[in-house]
Amino acid sequence: MPELSQDQLSKARLRLWLKLLKSVNGIEAEIRRNLRDGHNTTLPRFDVMSALARFPEGLKMSDLSTFLKVSNGNVTGIVDKLTEEGLAERVAVPGDRRAQLARLTGKGRTAFEELALHHENWINGLLDGWSPEDIDALSSRLELVLNRQNEEDASHA
C-alpha cells in the first residue's frame, strides 16, 4: 500500500470500519436466521446457554449479565424460560440468601452441545475459503482493537 496522508489514512480506517460492521451484521443476521429456522431459538438464548456451558458450576445472575454485557432483566427472562423447559436450573448461593446461581441441566447441556455443533458448522461454512494465514492475520489485528477496548473499559471502571 502506498504512503498515505493522515487524512487518507483516516478515511481508509473509516472504510475498514464500515466493511467490518457490514460483515459482522451480515453474519449475525444469518446466525439469527439459522437459529430461528433450524432450531426455533434466538441468539440471546444461545448466548445465555453458551455462557452457562462455560461455567458448569453456574453463574450468579448478575455475573451472567456482566459476562454477556446485557442487563439483568434480559438474562432473567431467558433463564426463566430455560428453567421452565428443564434446560436450566437456579440454585441458592450458600451464605447469600438473595443470590442464585443459574446453570444448565443435563438436558440443557445436551441441547446446547447440539446447537453449538450446528453453530460451528454455520460459521465454518460462512468463512470457508479463509486460509489459516488469513485467519491468523485478521485475528491478530482484531486483538489490537479488543485490547484497546479492554484498556478503555478498565480505565472507566
Automatic annotation (TrEMBL):
Q: What is this protein called?
A: MarR family transcriptional regulator
- Which SUPFAM superfamilies does the record match to this protein? Winged helix' DNA-binding domain
Task: Give the HTH marR-type domain ranges.
Answer: 6-147
